[in-house]
Amino acid sequence: MWRIYSPNHLGVRISTSTRKLKAALAAGTKSMGGILRLGNVDYKNQHDINLEMRAIQSELQVKFSTDRAMDALFLKREAFDHEAEYRAVIHVPNASEEEIRDGVKIKVNPHKLIDNILLDPRAPKELAAAFAFYFVEKLQYKQRVAPSVLYKSQTPLMVEAE
Fold first, then answer.
1. Rounded mean pLDDT of the chain?
2. Cα(101)–Cα(28) distance, rounded to whole angstroms?
3. Number of folded domains in the chain?
């Protein structure tokens, strides 16, 4: 993961649960009159994606449905199925031109949403310490902040001959 998404060794991974994400986004979406859809990405081969996209297009030409249009946003090539992606899509029918251009902003309480924060294990120790200090001391984050142990060497096994 770190080699793909953090090529500069400065990546930060935040973890949450689908339950917490849904709760955090639902309140903000409702207050702005939006429609929230959460779900797992459906990984398919390119041929099946093309068929599904044509079906969506045909249905939308007959009768437009926001929900059906959102289906396209949950399709991805099966080459990426290792990501096991979970997506949040928010449609705000009355969005301003600025929101359409810049994106919709939803206030969430990060202390309730985030379970833990992991840092790229290849980051320089001083930088990792600075990140941890910032999250804990400046942002008052109370959960775990630590470098990932993904690349940590295991204790070697010793086999002795008799």
1. 92
2. 19
3. 1
